[in-house]
User: Fold this.
Amino acid sequence: MQKATKGQFGYFRYERMRRLLITIITVLFPAAVFVAGIIVYGTERNLLTVIALVLVIPFAMAFVSLVMVYTHSSIPEDEYKEIEEHAGTLTMAYELYVTHETASTMVDAFAICGNTVVGLVTEKKGDPKFTADYIKKVLRSNGIGSNVALMTDRKHFLERLDSMNEHSESLRDVKFKPDSRYPDYDLEQTIWIFLTQISL
Assistant:
């Protein structure tokens, strides 16, 4: 399976396999130590049992992580290809589950042009309006004033991408002081980073 990092198409599909493998490894390790203790000492009351119990903690953490990615799935390939046909010169991010304690929203795709951020939400769960406001606040707190909109209609989203490409020169004509944490990143790359940081 092709590797996909956060913000790329296929991320959740890849993460499901990766985290499943990690979970299997972390459960085999304490099980092996526990069985070895019984074989060596003839009873489960031994030091290796204590070590095995401690080793269950990484398994529990891996299992929770696995459950979190299994509650979401990658967007269909035909949807991805259709969006890519309209992406043009825009900076794109895919499959970001924007998390917040109040409301979390799965965003199929984000398009970034200058300080304008537009996302597509097809999942019925979540709160697009709240999430858009939350993204604005996060960007503002990091010194980036932005226009953020989350759309639920794919056709309108694709039309918006076409419009952004058509007006990309004026949309990118914004003043930007590079973030000291990411001095080599331009405005769109910096926004991309912040979007991935607030997502699963």
